[in-house]
User: Fold this.
Amino acid sequence: MSGKVNTVVVQWAGDHRFDGGRPGSPHTIRLDASAQTGPGPVDGLLCALASCTGVDVVDILEKRRTPVASLAIAVTGQRVDAVPARLTAVHLTYTITGAGIERVHAERAIELAVTKYCSVRDSLREDIAVTWSLELA
Assistant:
């Protein structure tokens, strides 16, 4: 195996709960398929996609010297009505605030994040449609 390697350990925490994180790290995330003590696994995947693209959007706009003051990303995932209930489409709505951020530059940052830089998006099946919209606040 060549390239970068990520390793995580996931520990069953009873019922449908799992805690995962890097080996030896005190930082973990809770995934709960029953959604009682944390988001479910698919919700976790949607959060990972939003976070991955969000990091890139923040970095790109910061390089333009228009830093983001706040960023919220609402994510909607469409799933098939079958087993497994896999994702078929995802829509991300970015709400961005920040002095001097112009729509054209924010849209370009999002487009680059979603189509070029986000490793989570690139790891999803190619037939999952990923769309996005922007609200500048």
Observations:
- The helical segments are 41-63, 103-117, 119-123.
- The chain has two domains: 1-38, 41-136.
